Amino acid sequence: MREVPKDAQTAAHALMVRGGYMQQLSAGVYNYLPLLYRTLNKISQIVREEMQAAGSEELLMPALQPRELWEESGRWERYTAVDGIMFSFKDRRGSVSCLGPTHEEVVTDILRREIKSYKDLPRNVFQIQTKFRDEIRPRFGLMRAREFIMKDAYSFDADEAGLEVSYEAMRQAYHKICQRIGFKYRAVEADSGAIGGTGSQEFMVLADTGEDTIIYCDHCDYAANQERAASRLAEHAQDAEPKPMEAVLGEGLIGVEPLAKFLNIPVWKTTKTLVFEADDRVVAVMVRGDCDVNEIKVTNHLGCKSLKLASAAKIKELTGAELGYAGPIGLPPSVRILADNYVNGRVNFECGANQTNYHNINVNFGRDLPLPEFGEFKIAKAGHTCPKCQGTLQSAMGIEVGHIFKLGTKYSKAMACVYLDAGGKSQPVVMGCYGIGVSRMAAAFVEQNHDDKGITWSPEIAPYQVHLVALNLEDETVRKQSEQLYAQLQQEGIDVLYDDRPLRAGEKFSDADLIGLPTRITVSKRTLEQQKVELKRRRDTAAELVAIAEAGAKVKELLGKNFR
């Protein structure tokens, strides 16, 4: 395709459609065309090799899963009613099933039938399979699709020490996978979300168009997804004595910057109070005015299934004020009040007065309102201080391509996956799970590796290693020599895409750049006059002439360790 697709929001989406790698069938659902399918197979093979080297056995589980398993684990409602990402339906017999978005339940069911004793542990299995998630807004092509290819692995150990060994083996395998594919990436601490567990890491490909913000230290190795990241704030000198609390009229002042300027106080003395509906109750969350609320941390603290900002009507019902003037003083007793740790320790701070256009100043805990429930509820940002050292936090955008979890006994306890220990006592198996988005990896690589002409594949995962372009095919000598070279390269084990179309040189070169194979060989009347062919690497600007007989050896030299 010459034109950029109208719905393409990222370079990868546009280039993969234009280059003939994929076609959209419906929202978030794509046909993987031959070029892309070859790349997906190569990515899958790298993943397969590293998983097997780390001690994991391959199997294949059904995509169609019964509702009963998900109810047994307690996740059916979360995935269908709360998050709503499950494709579920009733079959002709009246049984309710789903298309698997993940396979913790199924794999636990498999292993609980196999594991009897501590002698049966550890176990580690993986699959590469199509997954289904009913995304509300599928976008960015393969980045957030409703049907996608994923590798998911699961470890089963007797105790936490065993889980640590399994987790570390998978973590190292993921580093090797990312390095072999050629990503610029970071492994970061992450929130476990609906999967659950005691800890997790994400493998993030660095890209400006990424959906996730990565927070990392400029001095030490600390790195985390912003949802999970912690930070320290600058501490400020406080007033020596509390002053009388006062309600100040500040008409139309919504936003901490204009409010602080109007009140002649620093922004850190202002307070944001956000009102949320957490399942069936209302929660108010306080953070310093120079911070924002981290909804993931609030959700995890509360242990709620759903957290959403209260509507303007709900806020007026609770506070009597319009949106933007909510505060912690005078809220109904039914409202649970949380506050970030950095809200504490301030003297004479500001907060909303629960009265339209009014703000309370010189507010102090213990005198004007009781101490709330303190915790880590702010979003860590670039410029904050690292929680591990004195370094300054930085930020970057990333695309999540892998996520590893320490599940612990979340599923094994719920689903009775147990074993008998050496003393004959029944114990729950300790689990881990490890996911990689295979199709997402292809898109993430293109997002990170392209120029204004097209894709720039690495030899490891390119659909073909060489793009053989034949010009002047009306000339019998050119045609025969091109076909002989095509056969020769294939006999030497080189993946070759042969362009024998009757098109002009400019069109063929343009298409070759768009498709983005690592190496291009051009055969023409001009090159054959010297008994040579033109060889050019996709990422280089200059080409060189090499003897026809040496073309295969030269390609292998350029491909280096990536030639197999």
What this model shows, in words?
With 564 residues, the protein is of the alpha+beta class. It has three domains: 11-63 and 100-203 and 399-446, BirA Bifunctional Protein, domain 2; 246-375, YbaK protein, CATH 3.90.960; 466-562, 3-Layer(aba) Sandwich (Rossmann fold), CATH 3.40.50. Strands 3, 7, 8, 9, 10, 11, 12, 21 and 24 form a nine-stranded mixed beta sheet that branches. The longest helix is centred in the first third of the chain and has 22 residues, at 160-181. It is globular. The chain starts with 10 loop residues before the first helix and ends in a 5-residue tail after the last helix.
Please describe the structure with a list of short key phrases separated by commas or semicolons.
5-stranded mixed sheet; 9-stranded mixed sheet; YbaK protein; BirA Bifunctional Protein, domain 2; 564 residues; 3 domains; Rossmann fold; alpha+beta
The CATH class designation of the largest domain is: Alpha Beta
How many strand elements?
29
Mean pLDDT: 93
Which fold name fills CATH's third level, the topology of the largest domain? BirA Bifunctional Protein, domain 2
